[in-house]
Amino acid sequence: MHLWEWRPPPSSFRRWHRWAPAPGGPGQLQLDKAAQRLQEFAVPDELDGTAPRARRRAAFLVLWGSLNPVHAGHLTALEAAAEAVSAKAKGPVVAGFLAPSVDEEELENDQPSFAQRRHLCALACTDSDWIEACPWGRSSSSKVVRKIHKHLQERFSRVNGIAWEFEGWQIASADAALVLPLKRSSPRTVFVAHDESDRCLVRSYIAGCEQEKIARSVLVAMSRYPGVTSAEVRRLVSAREWDRLTERGWLAPAVLERLQTQAESAELERLRAKVEAQAAALVCRRAGADAAEAEAGLRDSTWRPGVALTGRAEADAVQADEAAAATLDDCPSELEVLQAVVEAGFSACSATVAWDLQLVGDVLVPSTAPGGPPGPSQPSASSAQPSTASGVQPSRAGRERPCSPAGARPPA
Q1: Judging by DSSP bridges, how do beta strands 392-394 and 400-402 pair with one another?
Q2: Domain coverage including residue 160
Q3: Does residue 199 belong to any structural domain of this protein?
Q4: Quick one: 226 and 296 in the same domain?
Q5: Side-chain-facing half-sphere of 239: CA atoms under 13 Å
Q6: pLDDT tens sequence across 249-279
Q7: Where are the compositionally biased (Low complexity) regions (predicted)?
Q8: Model pTM greater than 0.85?
Q9: Exposure string over 353-371, b if 16+ CB within 10 A, otherwise e
């Protein structure tokens, strides 16, 4: 390798330089909705046939934050801010963007990644004719506004003979007025107030701006969903209260369906892991308790995993097995089957599920189906013949254990 050959800079260098790729990953900004709205607004102002203005102004909005998850409060905040900007600015609002923030260095277990939040934002704005999801992850709202402004200015510098000038507005909550330092270089800001106290807070903040230019670049809009918060939505999602979320209308249907699917998949994986862990524990206990008997039972093809309820009568064992079988027969999905198995603790399961899992119960019980030879057993010292009246067979070590019910279903 020659000394003059170019090498990529280290990650520490790329992290602190502006030309480096964004942590959110590559992505193309969707501007089809903005192009459609520009076509609608690119009409002459005068109706007498005179030429329209050579240059016009258009605004776009950016709602930046964690958006975990995106809900109706975020979308209605964009709508309210668009009305405020349209009434105050000198041009129409042609686009709005949901911009999820970049991932932190260490994500919590239940915190979705940037890619997942961006996908939910894309689902949330599917039915909107002017809101899109931003594909980049940035650490501040001002960076997102500057980059979107650059893309809009490069692509739509002239539409139908009209030169457009774009101005970006960032959306923030009323609480941000206490900590957000506004400077001359800061993007225009729309504060969303949830109640009258928030409105008064923002107005006092605007009145306290020393520079008149900054005061003119700050607006206040009232929220249409003052009661919805991301924390409350996350609580309902964590509690699997899908009906309440649907009733309140806090989530878009596509977002709600996606979150429900993710929750069911995560629960299914958790139950599978728990079943595997319990099965492994049963194998260890069985191998350590009576390895020879387990080996003899597995060699005999007439043996199968069954239900073992030591200390119960045969009638109780049959009743528990039938109840578990009826419960599992009504389960329409694998998730509910695993939930029933985990809740039962492998104590009462149907023969079909027992055969599928291959590990149900603390011991292996020989089958008592008609015509089949019984499993290996030895009489105890006190009796030379096995007792059949109570349905109990003596084991190799002289311990009594219940037989499998004669009416149990054979494995499928």
Answers
A1: antiparallel
A2: 23-40+52-103+112-251
A3: yes
A4: no
A5: 10
A6: 999 999 999 999 988 888 888 888 877 777 7
A7: 378-391
A8: no
A9: bbbbbebbbebbbbbbeee
